[in-house]
Hints:
- The chain is an alpha+beta fold and 185 residues long.
- It has helices at 5-32, 41-48, 52-57, 72-87, 105-110, 138-149, and strands at residues 62-67, 93-98, 118-122, 128-133, 160-162.
- It has 2 domains: 1-38; 41-162, 3-Layer(aba) Sandwich (Glutaredoxin).
- The chain has 6 helices and 5 strands.
Amino acid sequence: xxxSPQASSLNNTQRLMLLLAALILxxxxxxxxxxxxAEAPLDQLARRSLEPDIALANGRPTVxxxxxxxxxxxxxxxxxxxxxxxxxxxxxxxxxxxxxxxxWEELVDRYGVNGIPQLNFFDAAGNPKGESRGVRSPEQLEQxxxxxxxxxxxxxxxxxxxxxxxxxxxxxxxxxEPVGPRDHG
Length: 185
């Protein structure tokens, strides 16, 4: 025989208590993790991000942010980048490129990414305007994006660089070999 009816009801009471405790724990964890909006700002930006070539060709100024999920500085700046994106009302594209994704290796090499976060700025025609390494404050981000939207020179902050408008002359006319600083041929 299995047990008395009293032992069976005790097991049902225990099961009900465990179920209730699990439900309460699940609700507490759900609330602590942000509820329905559990995505971190960096994840939100990355998921909404356009492909870089589409952003550079759509007639809006573009900011490409090179980042990594493990980068604390990138995570620190993400809420400000998200707020900047929202303030611009689709007048600018903010594109996130994860440097750890092999898909973007060529892009990372093309823009010489050697520190993150790195922001590359482009005008509405997709021409490079400058770059920035390191965390930017909300005020700096606003000044930078406003300058892009208004087609003005970018403000200069520490860690900023400009991009030359000179044509690429690294190849000789009849010789496809790269021309370097020691090439006197």
